[in-house]
């Protein structure tokens, strides 16, 4: 995938009735290690939330949210042209043996990685046991709190640690990334994939999205007061550098929110992006508005509905930025810039080539 050029403006398709086919109705459209108590879910304002470490994460975990996460997974892949990751750790000649997916959610990324790289052991962790019961033999899931001390001893270090869409769930990012640093092998990589909870435009039309801007400011304020800010994507690179990672890279991509672009890739990406944004408005705001901002349930629902209405019916050319930030833990040997993940790397080069082909 070529490096993104976010300074290049997205050309607008002036001939297309952008939203004629995208109204509110069309948008709306194992190896688990758990204790019995983690399934005693909590219900609030008509949505279901995690029970383990109750109240620490302000986003639901019910079926509606799981469907949203599935769409978001496809969006993260589509932004990069189909790639599951940007860090080079899973590409030949590297040979990772252990991969950790922190905050795995439904586990869909971990399952895709397990399928694409059957030689690697994949472990996913999350507060909610919402992952499939039946998984590939090289993939497992455990219940763990990413903000507590991770449940892995030093001898179980990973070659690659991945986290995605963790904004709003981490209070102390420097500590979180320090834990990632401690649990990755020398020469291994950590990658954090995040999208900005903020809209932009190249032609100034984002200023017409008054309610959306207000919603994002309110969401930023509420998440700060909650102690776990959501709009952190642009800060991850600096935090990773401060944690001691080297070769830190922030691959940043534009994602239109609506099918207004002339380019076919951006047009299709925009349809998916708008649907994902639409589905995000309520789950991101409902708990924060009622718990932190003193909204009633009815007020929070009406507010979300007003924001969705503007998103569906507005005629602006907005986008957001997706950040794929990855860095490497310095190798043990000086001058060893690349990580050789095992003595069997050369013997299994052919398998790696096949894995890479499957991944494309």
From TrEMBL:
Molecular-function GO term, any one? methyltransferase activity
Renumbered to this chain, the Acidic residues biased-composition regions fall at 337-360
- Supply the SUPFAM superfamilies for this chain: S-adenosyl-L-methionine-dependent methyltransferases
For region Disordered, the annotated ranges are 332-360
Pfam families the UniProt entry points to: Methyltransf_23
By its UniProt entry, which InterPro entries does this protein fall under? SAM-dependent_MTases_sf
Q: What is this protein called?
A: Methyltransferase domain-containing protein
């Amino acid at each position: 995938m070529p490096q993104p050029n976010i300074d290049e403006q997205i050309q607008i398709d002036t001939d297309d009735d952008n939203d004629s086919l995208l109204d509110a109705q069309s948008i709306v459209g194992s190896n688990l290690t758990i204790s019995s108590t983690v399934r005693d879910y909590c219900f609030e304002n008509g949505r279901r939330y995690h029970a383990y470490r109750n109240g620490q994460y302000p986003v639901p975990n019910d079926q509606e949210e799981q469907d949203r996460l599935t769409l978001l997974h496809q969006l993260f892949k589509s932004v990069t042209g189909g790639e599951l990751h940007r860090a080079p750790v899973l590409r030949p000649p590297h040979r990772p043996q252990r991969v950790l997916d922190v905050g795995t959610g439904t586990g869909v990324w971990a399952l895709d990685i397990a399928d694409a790289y059957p030689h690697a052991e994949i472990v996913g962790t999350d507060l909610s046991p919402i992952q499939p019961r039946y998984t590939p033999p090289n993939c497992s899931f455990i219940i763990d709190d990413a903000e507590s001390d991770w449940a892995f001893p030093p001898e179980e270090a990973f070659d690659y640690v991945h986290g995605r869409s963790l904004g709003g769930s981490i209070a102390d990012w420097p500590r979180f990334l320090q834990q990632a640093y401690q649990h990755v092998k020398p020469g291994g990589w950590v990658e954090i994939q995040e999208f900005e909870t903020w809209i932009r435009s190249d032609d100034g039309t984002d200023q017409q999205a008054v309610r959306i801007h207000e919603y994002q400011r309110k969401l930023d304020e509420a998440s700060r007061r909650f102690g776990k800010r959501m709009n952190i994507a642009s800060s991850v690179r600096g935090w990773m550098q401060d944690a001691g990672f080297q070769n830190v890279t922030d691959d940043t991509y534009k994602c239109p929110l609506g099918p207004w672009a002339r380019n076919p890739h951006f047009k299709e990406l925009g349809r998916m992006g708008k649907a994902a944004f639409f589905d995000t408005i309520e789950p991101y705001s409902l708990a924060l508005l009622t718990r932190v901002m003193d909204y009633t349930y009815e007020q929070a629902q009406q507010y979300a509905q007003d924001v969705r209405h503007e998103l569906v019916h507005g005629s602006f050319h907005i986008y957001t930025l997706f950040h794929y930030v990855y860095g490497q833990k310095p190798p043990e040997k000086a001058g060893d810039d690349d990580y050789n993940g095992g003595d069997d790397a050369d013997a299994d080069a052919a398998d790696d080539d096949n894995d890479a082909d499957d991944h494309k």
